Amino acid sequence: MQKEISQAVIRRMPRYYRYLGELLDDGVERISSNELSVRMKVTASQIRQDLNNFGGFGQQGYGYNVQYLYEEIGKILGLDRQHNIIVVGAGNMGQALANYVKFEKRGFVITGLFDVNPALAGLSVRGIEIHMMDELPEFLKTQRVDIAVLTLPKEKAEQAAEKLVELGIHAIWNFAHLDLELPDDVVVENVHLSDSLMQLSYNIVRRQDDK
Amino acid sequence: MQKEISQAVIRRMPRYYRYLGELLDDGVERISSNELSVRMKVTASQIRQDLNNFGGFGQQGYGYNVQYLYEEIGKILGLDRQHNIIVVGAGNMGQALANYVKFEKRGFVITGLFDVNPALAGLSVRGIEIHMMDELPEFLKTQRVDIAVLTLPKEKAEQAAEKLVELGIHAIWNFAHLDLELPDDVVVENVHLSDSLMQLSYNIVRRQDDK
DNA sequence: TAGATTGTTAATCGATTAACAATC
DNA sequence: TAGATTGTTAATCGATTAACAATC
Q1: Which residue ranges hold the DNA-binding region (chains A, B) (predicted)?
Q2: Which residues pair with B86 in a beta bridge?
């Protein structure tokens, strides 16, 4: 088992990936930690320190090859493989995510939508069928699912999460406004939109008070 | 001007608010930092340290009054006032957010949707009209807008953000997949969904590799 | 009053930044 | 080779945890 890498570092990796992708699009071939630090508004030291958690991707006197580093970070983030995704909760948010095609380019493929609302049964979003929750066991028997996106209201989310884990799901992208209590081997990533909005609100109020 | 409070602390405040709200719903009158720490899986020390950034809300030998603390954190987060919001980008994500009524309960009221796509002109979501971007100056002249939600694709987002700031917007909730370069007095809160998904992906891959 | 628990200071831990020897 | 820039160790800074005196 490799040494544990702090979540602070992990959180920065997608941002590096994004900037390197832009550099690649701009036809930039090599970049030094210093140049990159100016663009990204972080220290060059942090960039080198972060990358060296995963390996020595650079070369003294030269810097980093953009293409190579981009691909390596992609691999670190698991973007070199396909992730099959189901969306549990086919309301507005679930449908919006299902319609978002950019994820697919990165290997995140939505293969099914699920809901409890019978009014949605048989409908589909961008060609992806909406199933009822009771079809889930059969669905998971016949195909691999790597990630379940949880976009149910919080009253239904806890129970659905437990069901998902019971059926063998090991990764949940949780949009419900609660902390899921699940076994340790289940990976959960939370998107708490209202927390984010409150943070914004705090910063607005503070700016006004400071004046 | 009060002393600067770290963003690490701010990020935790909405979570305290959520747990206190649940306690309130459960009819709990008082709670000690220790009891709360068990529920929230953080240290009691951190709770007391965090809260004391804003004031002494507790009482020795008693703990914290749930109702009182809930309200005080609400005030800190600016939930005691109304925030008028416009959504710029009336695609799937914009419409999903406009349909999400829970924000309204916390004082975040969406008063208009904007887009550049003429096909959407005149339509409305949950009674909120979709305007064209060129109506924005007039709209902002006639009513107060505190927050602009940016749900445009990244190619259009930068320009729209500049326009918004030019027209007097000081707070942006940014869902576009880029870092906005805006003046210091503009508050930006980012929701980078693909970053979040990549973090999840990283943790999935790592768990598999560890085995 | 005695017991409980805060508010706050001090100690520890971890993350960031600086410095520089290694090396391309 | 000389110059540039990494990889990595050491120093600093900030955040978290522990401890305890203050006090309800």
Answers
A1: 15-54
A2: B112, B148
Model pLDDT, residue B1: 40
Residues of chain B neighbouring A125 (CB-CB closer than 8 A): none
For residue B86, give the H/E element and its range: strand B83-88
Cβ–Cβ contacts within 10 Å for residue B49, how many? 12
Question: Do B149 and B54 reside in the same domain of the chain?
Answer: no
Confidence at A211, pLDDT banded by 50, 70, 90:
low
- Asked which of A76, A103, A119 is the last residue of a domain, the reply is A76
pLDDT at A3: 67
CA distance B104 to B84: 10
Residue B189 and residue A200: Cβ atoms within 8 Å? yes
Indicate if CB(B54) is under 7 A from strand C.
no
Answer yes or no: do A25 and A120 share one domain: no
The pLDDT value recorded for residue A208 is 84
Range of the domain at A69: 7-76
DSSP A146-203: -EEEE-S-HHHHHHHHHHHHHTT--EEEE-SSS-----TTSEEEE--HHHHHHHHHHH
Listed residue (B5, B100, B42, B158) closest to A199, CA to CA? B5
In degrees, to the nearest 5, what angle opens at C-alpha A119 toward C-alphas A115 and A123?
75
- Asked if the model's pLDDT at residue B2 lies above 70, the reply is no
A38 — contact with chain B (CB < 8 Å)? no
Which chain A positions have a beta carbon within 8 Å of B200's beta carbon? 147, 171, 173, 187, 189
Interchain proximity A14–B204, CB inside 8 Å? no
Domain end call among A57, A76, A95 = A76
